[in-house]
Design brief:
With about 550 residues, the chain is of the alpha/beta class. The chain has 2 domains: about 290 residues, Rossmann fold (3-Layer(aba) Sandwich); about 200 residues, 3-Layer(aba) Sandwich (Rossmann fold), CATH 3.40.50.880. It is built from 19 helices and 23 strands. The chain has a 9-stranded mixed β-sheet with strand order 13-12-14-15-23-22-21-18-19, with helices on both faces. Strands 5-2-6-1-7-10-11 form a 7-stranded parallel β-sheet, sandwiched between helices. Strands 16-17-20 form a 3-stranded mixed β-sheet. Helix 8 links the parallel strand 10 and strand 11. Helix 1 packs across helix 9, helix 13 crosses helix 14 and helix 14 crosses helix 15. Bound molecules: glutamine.
């Protein structure tokens, strides 16, 4: 039976006490509980910031920007268009946990909501009324949520994660919209899940539930009574702590769920399952109880648990302070590692201070592979170029992603071709050898903001290349986020010295990948394979890097 909008159930996930306590993984794991039972889901994330999308946010502050397969044209009113394919990094977690591709319209921001309302007012959509947060902004929020509930295939359950923390001023209209929506569809079709932090005080040997009580009280003051409280804590919650939270927060005790620190995040849905959260949610909604199918997921998690070999991958770059800046890369490395029975240790190398070949030779002495990171701007670039050069010289397995591939080409131009001062024009607009540059048509474009190449594009893989032996196909689709390009005029001259083009775009004009011929594994790609890696389906390129790294390590041991 196919559901209609009148059948859709809603799970709203709010956060309390602190941000950054893994609400994304919690939401994705709850989605998985429904999937284990054969129910269909869709996840919406609300980001209360005023940006239209996170494309312009600094990854050091905010973590990586996730890129979707599809691009969505956000049209607040006619004649205004904003193509969106850059969304919040939690969507990476959703894709990895649910195995589904998300659509950019699943990420709702305050920026989008207010733009629609304000431009709508200018176009006369409100017929003389005073335009207000309630009802106009809340109506627009509800409209966007419903759009996702009604879109084919209509899901059995729509999960909505509300970013930020309860009490934030920016989140108020969203919480009010949730209250209204819950009232409209009836409480039985809505589950409110509140995720909080429960600190453990070592000095008194006790969990402290007061911050949780306060954040639940804030929610109650907004007319929202949580049905489930999920408690992030260092350890499994004790029975007395659970009882206390149940009593003070007005939830049944079995609906107080522990979410302790775990080293394999993919275990989280199983942990929720063990605590009865899946069954409790189904009961709450009065849905048909079905036996959860856990075998495949368990086998996948076992691969992570049983990985015994340890390999070290160096990641030279500048955003090394916050590991979330490269969230999808970290995960893609772990996926490929698990498939090969290895745990991947990442060694960050800060290339602002580690910035010449000698320094990098030392840094890379005992690593098994190098992943050269994506990025923008001049900071840390010389060290990244040195890393690519040293990986070539020392035959260390190397994967350059986007900027990493571009800087790999710069390294080859300088060290092998002898083109002194070769560079990307992003850093040196006057370089004599601009091996990475804007394409001619981009230079003519007036509107610089619109020149970023985003979303999924066809990648043609050339025969007789390492890339082809990894993919095993001649055509695929990968996700892009870049402005500059490897310039054929220069790159094609490198062939005689051993650097070849291994993938192009549909037209054959854009270079999508390069590789070295006389090297066990040195590949640079203009796209981001990490966005398509899944815990049970590692990406061929990451798998290639990890396999080469294991061989490199074994070779060294001999
Ligand atoms: N800064 C480079 C460009 O714009 C690379 C971008 C990236 O690594 N995602 O082309």
């Amino acid at each position: 039976m196919v559901g209609t909008r009148d059948d859709v159930r809603f799970v709203f996930v709010t956060g309390g006490v602190l941000s950054g306590i893994g609400k994304g993984a919690t939401t994705a794991s709850i989605a998985r509980l429904f999937q284990f039972r054969g129910y269909t889901i869709r996840i919406v994330k609300i980001d209360p910031y005023l940006n239209i999308d996170p494309g312009t946010l600094n990854p050091i502050e905010h973590g990586e920007v996730f890129v979707t397969e599809e691009t969505w044209v956000f049209r607040p009113v006619e004649d205004f268009e904003f193509p969106i394919s850059e969304i919040d990094l939690d969507f990476g977690t959703y894709e990895r946990f649910t195995g589904m591709d998300v659509h950019p319209s699943q990420n709702i921001t305050s920026g989008q909501i207010y733009t629609s309302v304000i431009l709508g007012e200018r176009r006369g959509s409100f017929l003389g009324r005073t335009v207000q947060i309630i009802p106009h902004v809340t109506d627009e929020i509800k409209r966007r949520i419903w759009e996702n509930a009604e879109k084919e295939p209509v899901p059995d359950v729509l999960l909505v994660e509300i970013g930020g923390t309860v009490g934030d001023i920016e989140a108020m209209p969203f919480l009010e919209a949730v209250r209204q929506l819950a009232r409209e569809v009836g409480r039985r079709r809505v589950a409110l899940v509140h995720v909080t932090l429960v600190p453990y005080m070592k000095s008194v040997g006790e969990f402290k539930t007061k911050p949780t009580q306060h954040s639940v009280r804030t929610l109650q003051g907004l007319g929202l009574q949580p049905d489930f409280v999920i408690c992030r804590a260092e350890h499994e919650l004790t029975q007395p702590a659970k009882e206390k939270i149940a009593l003070f927060c007005n939830v049944p005790e079995q609906n107080v769920i522990s979410n302790p620190d775990i080293d394999i995040i993919y275990r989280l849905p199983l942990s929720f399952e063990e605590q009865g959260l899946g069954t409790a949610l189904i009961n709450h909604f009065g849905m048909e109880q079905r036996e959860p199918q856990l075998d495949e997921w368990r086998q996948m998690v076992a691969k992570y648990e049983n990985a015994s070999e340890e390999i070290t991958i160096a990641m030279p770059g500048k955003y090394t302070m916050l590991s979330d800046s490269y969230k999808s890369i970290n995960e893609a490395l772990a996926h490929a590692g698990a498939a090969c029975g290895a745990r991947v240790k990442i060694r960050w190398i800060e290339t602002e201070t580690h910035c010449d070949d000698n320094c990098l030779r030392e840094d890379l002495e005992d690593v098994d592979g190098v992943l050269l990171t994506p990025g923008f701007g001049a900071r840390g670039v010389e060290g990244m170029i040195s890393a690519a050069a040293v990986a070539r010289e020392k035959q260390i397995p190397f994967l350059g992603i986007c900027y990493g591939a571009q800087l790999g080409a710069v390294a080859f131009a300088r060290r092998v071709m002898g083109w002194e001062g070769a560079h990307t024009t992003e850093v040196d607009p006057d370089s004599l050898y601009p091996v990475v540059d804007l394409m001619d048509e981009q230079k003519q474009a007036k509107n610089k903001g619109g020149t970023m190449r985003l979303g999924a594009h066809v990648v043609r893989i050339l025969p007789d290349t390492k890339l082809h032996s990894l993919y095993g196909v001649t055509e695929t689709k990968e996700r892009f986020r870049h402005r500059y390009h490897l310039i054929g005029r220069y790159i094609n001259k490198m062939k005689d010295k051993g650097l070849v083009v291994s993938a192009v775009d549909e037209t054959g004009r854009i270079i999508n990948a390069i590789e070295l011929v006389n090297h066990p594994f040195w590949i640079g790609v203009q796209f981001h394979p990490e966005f398509k890696s899944r815990p049970d389906r590692p990406h061929p390129l990451y798998l290639g890097l990890i396999r080469a790294a294991i061989e490199h390590k074994t070779g060294k041991a001999r």
